[in-house]
Amino acid sequence: MAEKTKVKLHLPGFYALRISPEMQALLDEHAAAIQARAGANYKHSVHVGAKTAVARVYPAGAAGIREERKHASLSKAVGGW
Fold this sequence. Notes:
Structural class: alpha+beta
Strand content: 15-25%
Mean pLDDT: 94
Largest sheet: 2 strands, antiparallel
């Protein structure tokens, strides 16, 4: 019978990888690509927390909100439709 393999995660290293400048650059690149597909009425940003970095693409104002409501541009750019 096969032995079970145990894996022990080194969480501080994992968190360091998730907030590294390389990960932030990758997130920014992907968010910029989604923003470009969605159109000019959207912006993107990367936020870094204690344990992870997060990229967001969001409407730039009322025009972006209307465009998303009427055409689902951002949802389509992400691949949700």
